[in-house]
Amino acid sequence: MRRNVLLSFLFLFAVFQLVDAQVKGVIQDQDGFAVSDAEIQVRGGEATSFTDENGAFEIDAKVGDVLVVTDMLGSSKDFAVNAEDMGTLSMSAEVLTEVVILGYGISETDEQKTGAYTTVKSEDIEKVGTLSFDQALQGQVAGVNIGAGSGQPGSYTPINIRGITSLTGSSQPLVVINGVPVTTEDLSGIAATSNPLANIDPSTIENVTVLKDAMGTSLYGSRGANGVILVTLKKGAYGTDKFSFNTEFGVGDVAFEKNDWLDAQGHANYFTTAYANATGGSFDDLYPVIVDALGWDGVSSYDWKDAVRQNSISSQKYIFNYSGGSDKMRLFSSLSYNDQEGIASNSDYNRISGYLGADWKVKEKLNLNFDVTLSKAKQTGPTDGSAFSNPIFAGYVMSPTQSFYNPDGSYNLDLYFLNPEFNPLALQEANRSDSDFYKAIVNLGGDYDITNNLNFATKFGVDYNFYDELLYWNPDFGDGNSDGADPLGDGYGYASQRNFNTWNWSNALKYQKTFADVHDLTLTAGTEAIKYNYSVVFAERKGYPAGNTKPTLDNAANPSDASSSGSDYSFMSYFGRLAYSFDNRYSLTANIRRDGSSRFGTDNKWGTFWGVGAAWNINREAFLSSSSINELKLRGSYGTVGNGEIGNYAWMNLYRAANGAYLGQAAGAITQLGNNDLKWETTKQLNVGLDFGIFENRLRATVDYYVKNVEDLLYTVPTNASSSGFTSYWTNDGELQSRGIEASLTVVPVRTDDFEWSISGNYSYNDSEIQNLNDGNISIRNGRKAWMNGHNPTEFYTRLWAGVNQENGLPLWYTDETRTTTTSELNQAAQVFTGKQALPVHNAGLSTSLTYKGFVLSSQFSYAGGHSVYDTWGFVYNSDGTYGQLNTREDWANGAWTPDNAGSATLPQVVYGGNNQSNSASTRYLYDADNIRWRSAEIGYRFGKDILGENLFLNNVYVYVKGYNLVVWTFDDDLWFDPEVATNDVDYNGIENMGLFNLTQPNLRQFIFGVKIDF
């Protein structure tokens, strides 16, 4: 023991006697990202700058010296030299200036930034606990509104960046993962909703950057109209080896839902009252009749809403990661499994995925990179809407007087319901809806330094999506039972396979040089080619044997239909970029891109889009050099981007050869009127921003103001169907404007060696207005939305509800938008613009994080307001007795008009079969959707080497508990469902579904226990 101590002392003594040597190492931020812009100084010596993009440095120093590393903002950190190879030096996020990657090998520092973008780091994505990373962005990026297509795990996530940019085209932003543009469409054919981005494991993501203004998005030309989301996947660190294992287990329930539906006694009273008012009979005389018709025992009450849902919603996750590499290569690999149950009894989503990413320094001038993501997800779950087989719908409206089972234990298939066979419990067990989603993202690239200043980079990527789905309806009851009326037999099977594949190849030549130590110039020129292919094949069969339990198509006797189809489109692009900065004080950037698309006719295939931006780093001026202001920047940008999301063949006259039969022969028909004059939608955007940071950037703020003008809006206009046979055709001559302001603030009130507290908040305001459309005439899209000059494109257009006539219990509507005259006659109530819109006007987020030694505590809140949601199926279950056999909510008992409460009633008289069409579409079913959401919280403790011991192979053990969707506060007391599942439900064909509640599964609230081990 003594000899070991003595030898150790002699060794240390010898080390400290070393003369000057080359000390080397790697500087990275706390997330393992290379810090490539800094100065290193041996305390008391001269500063040495380095520009190695991988953060590697070599400097003359000896053991015992102290290295002072200083970032571009002047913040610094000390590192004691204890070896010639320092390994990895980690700096906190506040001490460094990170390089933001904008794509095509283009990157810039914060001081060079002229546009508007926000970067969210991996830890801020993972702590939220969502299945897909896009859902985690809600509340963390100003100007971005994230919705939820459904509470179904793996569901589609609608995203809007800075409002509406198209009426009929997609409003989804372009998502680029490691340089590969990926699809964000809901590609499912059977599943109620699906999200291709849910196939990406969030633990493999390094960071997500959201490009919002034309300076950043014009680099992507026609695909950047709706904003761009850049996802950077993790890579390892040179010269290190790290392993980690993370596991989580969770339980959940419904995040928000008012449980105010009637019990059995309440429904029997409601049905009887409605029936009595319809027939003129007395309640006492008719009550036994209704009870007998319902087959109710007068005592039992069956909670169908609870019965169709899982009693205990669980989740589990396992992730194994490796991060490391040599001095020539770094790589990151991950294998994960995730299983998440939904609210409905047959709702589940499980995903297994793997990822491998590598960078290889082949030679001094040649670098190669490769990454591949493979995943397979399986989703089961019910349909949505008012389908009888939708258990969410049936659970709400099924009479609680109806028993689940017969006395012998079999399912009750003689229900007093819209269809007696549609027992949702039986249907969930006997029917099947299975969807298997396969996804592969493969990326291969490299760059070569032709000279010290000239670099060539190439990247080829593939996004492959394959959907294999099966739908089965049993032959004995429900949708599959025709009672012998279908000559092909009972039961129904439908199988489909869909492929959506994208390949992308980009090449860029970059020249970068610094002149006279103050002039930094970067020139980039490149090309990009993109090809999209979509194909689908499906088959149907009927004639399953009674009692069948095997859902495959080969178990049915009779083929009923089969078909295949496909489509494709392509882009070809040329782009250029200039970036210049002077003495880190003034920056100028300019982009130009020429895009060609197969979606437009011969004369309009090509569009040119551009952007310019400038920034002034005021804090770099001499008059502020001695102040405590670390950052003060004024920046501005202006540019154009395009949008061509109109479908692959919208400009063409389409002809279908086999369009049925005519006189016994195969007949063809023109199926679409083309328009060769269709051209790109063009968005012109102005952005002015101010960035501010003081006290070593412990207080940082950003404010942006923008105006977006969309020209040549693509939309359909009605035609005279009697003369042409077509009801509409495509055109683009409209104008739309969006204005907004965004602000974000980060404060670190306390920072010591053991304790740190940080607070971040953001707020955004956005509103859009149609300025010119259809020659100023109204353009009606459906029964609840319309477009017209001077109105928001998501504004609701319907009748104005005025309540109840207190004299006779009849419904009341306002006759017009002046709201001065009421009527009980539906045909006298005009449909008008309501002043209520579906897209939130205000969005905000607030997050806080505290760390004390090993303790970690964090929490995040989000707010959305200034918008409304419409209950699409409220006319069924809030029908004033129209559907008296269906359940309703408790408020009818105290609110419905009776002769006894005339003068104070809030609802019309309940009448079986209908009260003067009181349940017709109107603002009665329109609710204010303003809400505050406690989105996530986490508390944990990190056991480090000081506790685990130096001899243990474990480096860190982090034990934590976190919650997601913990509490939802709504401002409208009458709103009974979660507004997030309706506020932004945008399908791929436009915005008409936005703000419509469609009886989807409710959002989940989850509580998760997890352990993460680093070794």
Automatic annotation (TrEMBL):
Residues 404-771 form the TonB-dependent receptor-like beta-barrel domain. Gene3D superfamilies: TonB-dependent receptor, beta-barrel domain, TonB-dependent receptor, plug domain. It is a multi-pass membrane protein. This is SusC/RagA family TonB-linked outer membrane protein. Its main location: membrane. Residues 113-228 form the TonB-dependent receptor plug domain. Residues 1-21 form the signal peptide. It holds the Pfam family TonB_dep_Rec_b-barrel. Keywords: Cell outer membrane, Membrane, Signal, TonB box, Transmembrane, Transmembrane beta strand, Transport. The keyword Signal applies. SUPFAM superfamilies: Carboxypeptidase regulatory domain-like (SSF49464), Porins (SSF56935). It comes from Moheibacter lacus. Belongs to the TonB-dependent receptor family.
